[in-house]
Amino acid sequence: MNAQLMQDLDHIENFNEGLAAIKKGDQWAFMDKDGNIVIDFRSDLASLKDENGQKTSPIFHNGRALKMKTIDNIKLYGYIDNAGKEVINCEFVSATPFSNGFAIVMIYYKEVVGKNKALGKDVVSYQIEEYVIDINGKALTPRLNKRIFAPQKMKSGDAPEFASRFIGERMIAVETENQKWDVYKF
I need a surface site. Which of 18, 46, 66, 126 has the fewest CB within 10 A? Predict the structure, then answer.
């Protein structure tokens, strides 16, 4: 006997870590191998872009999937577990999927660098930095490649690009301002 489990889905992905992403309208959900929805349809599951600039489906890696929320028109990323619970807060302006238990994340913050006495206002610089986290959100490296980045670019949807990448087991390469590379082991 055949039984229809779901209908009118806009997209369905292959199973990964026992779950498949399914899309209906603007929302994603995850179903298990029995066809049960284990994470209900929601609009905060993050899709990234692949190397060709095409949006990908949400996917679990190492028991974590990217989640996104928007604050002050800036997209912030965090992670959920395979029950749909947020386990790492949405505080990163960019984040990679986990790989071998680690992810690269990027934060931004405002640094007051002086005072405009004529206007009575702070002079600020917005900085971004990258670091490696484990699946619990614990930082494993110092913050890497501090650089200036205008929040207006993030508000237009242009997330900063990573200057760091994994190159081996517990090793990361970081491109410096002068297009050279530093290598760190963590």
Answer: 18
